[in-house]
From TrEMBL:
SUPFAM superfamilies: Carbamate kinase-like. It is an enzyme of class 2 (transferase). The lineage of its organism: Bacteria, Pseudomonadati, Bacteroidota, Chitinophagia, Chitinophagales. This is Aspartokinase. GO terms for molecular function: aspartate kinase activity; ATP binding. Belongs to the aspartokinase family. Residues 1-280 form the Aspartate/glutamate/uridylate kinase domain. One of its GO terms (cellular component) is cytosol. Pathway: Amino-acid biosynthesis; L-threonine biosynthesis; L-threonine from L-aspartate: step 1/5; Amino-acid biosynthesis; L-lysine biosynthesis via DAP pathway; (S)-tetrahydrodipicolinate from L-aspartate: step 1/4; Amino-acid biosynthesis; L-methionine biosynthesis via de novo pathway; L-homoserine from L-aspartate: step 1/3. It catalyses: L-aspartate + ATP = 4-phospho-L-aspartate + ADP. It comes from Hydrotalea sandarakina.
Amino acid sequence: MIVYKFGGASISNIERIQQVIQIIENIEAGEKAVLVISAMGKTTNALEKVVDAFFQQKATEALQLFEVIKQQHLTVAKYLLVKEYNTCYARMIDIFTEVEWLLHDKPVRAYDYYYDQIVCCGELLSSTIIHFFCKENGLNTQWIDIRDVLLTDNNFRDAGIIWDITAQKAQQVFLNTAHSIYITQGFIGATTDNESTTLGREGSDFTAAILGNVLEAKSVSIWKDVEGVMSADPKMFKEAVYIPELNYNEVIEMAYYGAQVIHPKTIKPLQNKHIPLLVKCFLNPSLPGTIIHNAKHLHFPPIQILKDKQVLITFQSLDFSFIGGQSIQNIYAFLNALKLIPNLIQFGAISVQICLDDKAEKINELAMLAAEKFDVQVQKNLQLFTVRHYTAAILNAMNAEENVVLRQQTPITLQILKLQKQ
Ligand SMILES: Nc1ncnc2c1ncn2[C@@H]1O[C@H](COP(=O)(O)OP(=O)(O)O)[C@@H](O)[C@H]1O
Ligand SMILES: N[C@@H](CC(=O)OP(=O)(O)O)C(=O)O
């Protein structure tokens, strides 16, 4: 069994979908494969706007925004399909209708619940189109609604996987049937009450890793628009170089510090079962891509990661007492309650500074909660720049940087938090 994940960029237009079909056609005969599909292009962003309008009780606007998404998907299906168009159309109408029914109601539950019920249709639609396009091209694919397999808790928008039931269902669905190529959705799941859930933005990589784990896949490949994992985002750093081989440790660090190429939750399920992760280029499938596995003693180039929209919170004791175990416990309790993960922490005698992603509402809540026990200061509009495996030249250049509010250095990792250029 192999798992392939196709992200939004790989299916963002008709030409790219045609390229993806060639990759699927090249899967070796007799090999079982699960194809995990994300929503096309920026569909999830567009669906988020539908959710916002619906939740603000702007029903007409929500329906209009949804109509645009509908037409875009119908146009793609119409262009790609002839024989299979009617069946595909009927399936798409079912998906549209489910959302439209909901949009005609008034919101009575929490925002996150509606988010998941609406946003999940992006992956349902894209996977339906790809499945029928495979059939149109003579491939005998089987479409699976992942919501019947990947079961989660009801923590909408960041649902937690119920691993044992998911493993059992995945094995029943994907291993006990004669089909060889399955098409399913990334990013979405369902509760045991059949309510749709999502796993967090960009969560399709995680879905591929979950399925790889429970199906004990030979490998998981994620198909991207880059040659493989690079030493930095090539859209931001011209000097970025391709890295042919990485280990799980390095990638988990990169993802944690904000490298956007792989979702941070992807590595653990694969590392736990020693399943290699391949990052491959859909624009040129013959390129080797990057292999991520258990390798030791690798030599890495300097790896640079820029994370925008950071905030620095300084918690200072109210009475000049030292920051000790109890105060740290209090701060961690606040962070845990709000599900906030620090990107950087620095201790002083009577203060502690924590850098976090600027999720405005949660940051305000954190500041309010902590104000009872600390003097709290919040500094916004910051950028976290991390370099792993830095050289002397990089160290000098980073030491010369201006507008730095925090700096941290270990023998491997150098980080500066600086004012974001407006
Ligand atoms: N270290 C890195 N190596 C390669 N690509 C990176 C890196 N950091 C960020 N990226 C960006 O990740 C993009 C691919 O990821 P993404 O667009 O999220 O793919 P998808 O939507 O297909 O999952 C690349 O176009 C690149 O700009
Ligand atoms: N469509 C979802 C899930 C996802 O993983 O997408 P992509 O593979 O395009 O990053 C999102 O945009 O968040």
